[in-house]
């Protein structure tokens, strides 16, 4: 089954074409376009390339297109990307302005260009559908809650991959199967060996998630991808009183405060150096105190959320690191896991240092009670798999 995964940025269009089977997934082709102002031309060019390279006889040769949609109003899961999805994206376009309009536009373009090809949306919030309301509801007035203001959770495709892959790595087949079938079967009854995972997705944007037996119990992300850990340019958690206070003290309008919290905060705002964790780390190593503070705040925040999920799950069997920072910054991983010997976390420094640049592996020592893993992110594969399962079950 040929499945195309379309990754739509506000100025970019990237794609991967997979040949999917029950157990096999083969990446046939990948490509993309930058500085994109409208997607229709890109789709045409992409189809021409895929035909010329012999991957498709025609556009209709595609079985489905998958979209990693971010946040839908009153809608989540892995669903057909129809008018309901377009309305849901539109309903929250103010909350995810960099993502929702781009996906709505992309879905429309595919519908126009390839009307016979099934379109499937896998929302980034999907992995968090079964989180207990106690962990998603904000203590705000009813009228605010009715607008859909609550914790959702993002990076769902990435954390779902960790739920599956970490179970495979530690040989827990029952949890692997449960995690795999989640969007089709829901969280089925479970009585096998427990697998509690603290999943740290640390990249341009970051989140920590607790996963019990393949199902998420909560995320550091909230109403928008703005909360939780400090992000590259975005603030992460912030007391809501700070906004009226800067309005009074600095005369910032709501729009300007929002812009600064989105574009001039996070690692960039703290370090004053860069929004890129590599530059920040380098500056810190050269003695820049602001850069060091940025690194320390990130580490403290990861530990804060990881500690929360450890406590909520009553322990953990696995701590997992993924995405650009999580896969590459061995020093940060060591600091996140430092001083946790009483919880049973012992890092193997040699394994930790060697597991970088896309390598997968276990970086804890054999005697470590909790296994610490590095698992390279593969969000496109997760989308292709879920679209495949969607097609099989519909
Ligand atoms: P995105 O979240 O935008 O998809 P990535 O998952 O690729 O991005 O993560 C990007 C982040 O990973 C950047 O902050 C980058 O500095 C960081 N990163 C990449 N390589 C390294 C490295 N060797 N050491 C530390 N951080 C790194």
Question: Which helices and strands occur, and which strands form pairs?
Answer:
Blueprint: E1 2-8, E2 13-20, E3 25-33, H1 39-52, E4 64-67, E5 78-80, H2 83-91, H3 100-113, E6 118-122, H4 142-145, H5 156-169, H6 173-180, H7 182-185, E7 196-202, E8 206-212, E9 215-219, H8 242-250, H9 254-263, H10 266-271, H11 277-285, H12 289-313, E10 318-322, H13 323-328, H14 330-336, H15 349-354, E11 361-362, E12 371-374, H16 379-393
Parallel strand pairs: 1-4, 4-6, 7-10, 10-12
Antiparallel strand pairs: 1-2, 2-3, 5-6, 7-8, 8-9, 11-12
Helix pairs in contact: 1-3, 2-3, 5-6, 5-16, 11-12
This protein binds adenosine-5'-diphosphate (ADP).
Residues 203-205, 232, 276-278, 281, 323-325, 328-329 line the site of adenosine-5'-diphosphate.
How big a fraction of the residues is strand? 15-25%
Strand order of the largest sheet: 3-2-1-4-6-5
- Please write the string of helix (H) and strand (E) elements: EEEHEEHHEHHHHEEEHHHHHEHHHEEH
Net shape: globular
* CATH topology call of the largest domain: Nucleotidyltransferase, domain 5
CATH hierarchy class name of the largest domain: Alpha Beta
Low-pLDDT runs of 5+ residues are: none
Bound small molecules, which ones? adenosine-5'-diphosphate
Q: How many domains, in number, for the residues?
A: 2
Rounded to the nearest angstrom, the distance between the terminal CA atoms is 14 Å
Name the CATH homologous superfamily of the largest domain.
ATPase, nucleotide binding domain
């Amino acid at each position: 089954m040929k499945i195309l995964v379309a990754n739509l940025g506000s100025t970019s269009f990237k794609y991967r074409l997979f040949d999917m089977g029950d157990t096999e997934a083969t990446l046939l082709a990948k490509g993309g376009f930058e500085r994109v102002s409208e997607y229709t031309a890109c789709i045409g060019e992409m189809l021409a390339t895929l035909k010329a390279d012999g991957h498709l006889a025609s556009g209709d040769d595609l079985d489905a297109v998958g979209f990693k949609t971010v946040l839908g109003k009153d809608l989540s899961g892995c669903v057909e990307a129809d008018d309901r999805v377009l309305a849901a994206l539109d309903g929250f376009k103010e909350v995810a302005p960099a993502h929702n309009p781009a996906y709505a536009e992309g879905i429309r373009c595919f519908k126009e260009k390839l009307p016979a090809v099934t379109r499937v949306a896998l929302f980034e919030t999907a992995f968090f559908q079964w989180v207990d309301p106690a962990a998603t509801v904000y203590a705000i007035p009813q009228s605010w809650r009715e607008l859909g203001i609550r914790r959702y959770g993002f990076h769902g495709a990435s954390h779902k991959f960790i739920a599956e892959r970490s179970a495979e790595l530690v040989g827990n087949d029952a949890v692997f199967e449960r995690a795999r079938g989640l969007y089709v079967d829901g969280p089925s009854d479970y009585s096998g060996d427990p697998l509690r995972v603290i999943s740290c997705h640390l990249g341009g944007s970051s989140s920590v998630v607790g996963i019990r037996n393949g199902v998420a119990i909560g995320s550091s992300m909230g109403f928008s991808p703005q909360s939780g850990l400090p992000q590259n340019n975005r603030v992460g958690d912030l007391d809501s009183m700070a906004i009226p206070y800067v309005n009074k003290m600095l005369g910032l309008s709501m729009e300007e405060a929002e812009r600064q919290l989105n574009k001039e905060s996070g690692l960039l705002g703290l370090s004053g150096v860069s929004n890129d964790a590599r530059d920040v780390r380098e500056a810190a190593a050269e003695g820049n105190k602001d850069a060091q503070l940025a690194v320390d705040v990130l580490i403290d925040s990861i530990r804060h959320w990881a500690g929360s999920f450890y406590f909520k799950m009553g322990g953990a069997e696995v701590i997992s690191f993924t995405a650009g920072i999580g896969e590459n910054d061995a020093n940060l991983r060591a600091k996140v896991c430092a001083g946790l010997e009483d919880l049973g976390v012992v890092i193997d420094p040699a394994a930790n240092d060697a597991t970088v640049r896309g390598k997968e592996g276990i970086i804890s020592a054999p005697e470590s009670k909790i296994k610490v893993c590095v698992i390279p992110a593969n969000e496109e594969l997760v989308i292709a798999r879920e679209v495949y399962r969607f097609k099989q079950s519909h």
